[in-house]
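Deliverable D2.4 — example input (structure tokens):
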């Protein structure tokens, strides 16, 4: 793509030259018309002046002397001797009633007979010169007066007008183009300064731009760049937090795994080796769960440019997620129950977040449920939102530490937990515009409820 300056200059000069061309064509057409009118008027005026001279009250015998004097004077017209080059291009002649030429100029075309029509006409002479002529009849004196002018006289004047109009316009256009080029450069200087500022910044700098003063047209650009820089800062901040959390939480499990591995190597009996191996496997499982939950947290971070989710069948999504968990629950001796209300309609939501939330709530309930316990999953409408709740028959929680249960890596009463389950569910709730509630049941156990807005 060409530069903005070149595109703007091309557009402005193109419009300017087009306008000048239209104006020039109009002026030439108008000038030709006006020149023709003026010269035609002069031809008619000269014919009438000649008519007046030819009507001078002289005796008939003196007419021949008058005509001879006319012809003698007109024959002396010479451009090089106190004359003008156009004299040979302007001519007239007069015929009497008998059709004889009584007065004529040397440059006049030769006619075999006097022109029959009066008024203006175009004539071509023997030398292929075009003439514009005017014929005036004088019936009273029996005269026919012809006055003519060569067309190249008018063409010469038109050429002069063209030279004096078009050439200055072209020169002025070139000067104007240079001025416009400089003016556009001056107008685009803030944009050039912004580009220079961006090039001069350190590649790792994410500080917002603060260019003042800034033209109004560039303020949205600076605001957009600052928003992008802020988003990049936010993404990098999340990545740093994720790396820091992962490094912090992986340090202890890896150290424990190393201890169990050393105990396994130093075990003196088969029973000690088996115990160390079981501890090692349990540590590997806990580390695996921690990694999976850390990755889940990373997937739940808000992302820009993600299209809106499609409309889904919420009961079917919840049912499918619970079906995936049922074999695992049965292997732990727990009975899953699903209770879905009939007034649940389609919801615009990402099914992945529902699956992740239910997985963590059910897993959390299973970790604290007694043997042969029941875990109940309920989905119901409450006013303008839906509630997805998981009930267990465990010991419940201490309401004084209810808020701490949502903190990252805080795990109470479960040595195998990573302390991220409820944090993940709360992140999902915030993403869905709802919240998470933990309530002790009157009959014993805990009820964890996720509110889902009805979009």
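Example output (designed residues):
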């Amino acid at each position: 793509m060409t530069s903005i300056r070149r595109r703007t200059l091309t557009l402005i000069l193109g419009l300017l030259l087009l306008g000048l061309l239209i104006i020039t064509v109009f002026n030439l057409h108008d000038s030709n018309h006006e020149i023709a009118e003026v010269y035609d008027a002069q031809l008619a005026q000269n014919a009438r002046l000649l008519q007046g001279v030819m009507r001078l009250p002289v005796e008939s015998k003196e007419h021949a002397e008058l005509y001879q004097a006319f012809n003698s004077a007109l024959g002396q017209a010479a451009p090089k001797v106190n004359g003008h080059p156009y004299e040979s291009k302007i001519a007239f002649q007069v015929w009497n009633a008998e059709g004889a030429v009584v007065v004529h100029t040397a440059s006049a075309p030769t006619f075999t007979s006097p022109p029959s029509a009066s008024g203006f006409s175009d004539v071509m002479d023997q030398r292929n010169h075009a003439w514009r002529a005017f014929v005036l009849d004088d019936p009273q004196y029996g005269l026919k007066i012809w006055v003519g002018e060569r067309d190249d006289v008018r063409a010469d004047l038109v050429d002069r007008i063209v030279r004096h109009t078009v050439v200055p316009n072209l020169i002025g256009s070139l000067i104007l183009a240079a001025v416009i080029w400089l003016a556009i450069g001056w107008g685009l200087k803030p944009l050039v300064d912004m580009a220079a500022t961006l090039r001069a910044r350190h590649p790792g700098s994410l500080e917002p731009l603060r260019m003042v003063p800034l033209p109004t047209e560039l303020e949205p650009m600076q605001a957009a760049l600052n928003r992008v820089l802020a988003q990049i800062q936010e993404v990098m901040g999340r990545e740093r937090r994720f790396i820091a959390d992962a490094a912090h939480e992986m340090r202890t499990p890896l150290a424990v795994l190393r201890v169990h591995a050393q105990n396994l190597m130093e075990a003196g009996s088969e029973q000690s080796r088996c115990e160390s191996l079981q501890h090692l496997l349990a540590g590997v499982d806990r580390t695996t769960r921690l990694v999976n939950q850390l990755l889940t947290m990373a997937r739940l971070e808000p992302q820009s440019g993600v299209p809106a989710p499609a409309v889904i069948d919420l009961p079917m999504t919840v049912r499918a997620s619970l079906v995936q968990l049922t074999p695992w629950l049965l292997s732990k001796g727990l009975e899953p129950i699903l209770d879905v209300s009939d007034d649940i309609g389609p919801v615009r939501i990402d099914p992945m977040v529902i699956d992740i939330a239910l997985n963590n709530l059910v897993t959390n309930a299973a970790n604290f449920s007694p043997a042969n316990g029941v875990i109940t999953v309920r989905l119901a409408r409450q006013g303008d939102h839906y509630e997805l709740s998981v009930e267990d028959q465990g010991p419940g929680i201490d309401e004084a530490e209810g808020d701490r249960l949502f903190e990252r890596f805080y795990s109470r009463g479960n040595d195998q937990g990573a302390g991220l389950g409820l944090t993940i569910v709360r992140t999902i709730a915030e993403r869905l515009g709802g919240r998470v509630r933990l309530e002790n049941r009157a009959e014993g156990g805990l009820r964890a409820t996720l509110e889902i807005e009805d979009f």
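The chain has a mean pLDDT of 77.
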